[in-house]
Amino acid sequence: MATSTFKATNYSAEEFVESCGAILFDFSGPAPQVGLVYYKPKDEWLLAKGRRNCGESRHAATLREIEEETGYRCHLFPITMPTRAPASAEKSSVPDQPRLYPDLTEPFMVTVREVDGKANVKIIWWYIAEVTSTDRASGGEGEEAFTSQFFNTEDAIQKLTFCSDRQILKKAIDLTEEQAYEGSRILNPDGRQK
């Protein structure tokens, strides 16, 4: 019997949970703002995320969790980024190496978190999202244990409780820095595009 040369760990369904989250941006002003959630019971500032339900797509889970935790409706923000995933129209023999693709709403990062060892793993898919309106979707603050607030990017990085969340946010900022204000998003005072 052959043994694979790749290091691998297998998890059955009762040993892992899939979560989806997003960096929530507001690009409507002159500089981007980042929405963070404050988890009241533990006094922690976090990125919004939560478990994917059975039968729910990752995209749908991301949007639902953001709205539940922040109270804001959003959409996935298309970005140009490198990925090892091939484009849908490419041949299956395309080399397994990163290539730059425009307008992706795919995860830009994944976290694999061991909780209590091998028998309890959380996989978190991270997306970039843009708030569709600064009016709260449900008129409230999101779920009872959370409140949300927007910060400029530097303050958001400093506000986050955990280093791993800071790394995720920094990567999202790097990916969106130039792309968010392209086109007609930001205009000069005379109405011309910047």
From TrEMBL:
Protein keywords: Hydrolase
Coiled coil (UniProt feature): none
The keyword Transmembrane appears for this protein: no
Domain Nudix hydrolase: 40-85
The UniProt record lists the keyword Hydrolase: yes
Lineage top rank: taxon: Eukaryota
GO biological process: AMP biosynthetic process; ATP biosynthetic process
InterPro entries named in the record: NUDIX_hydrolase-like_dom_sf, NUDIX_hydrolase_dom, Nudix_hydrolase_domain
UniProt name for this protein: Nudix hydrolase domain-containing protein
The organism's taxonomic lineage, starting at the top: Eukaryota, Fungi, Dikarya, Ascomycota, Pezizomycotina
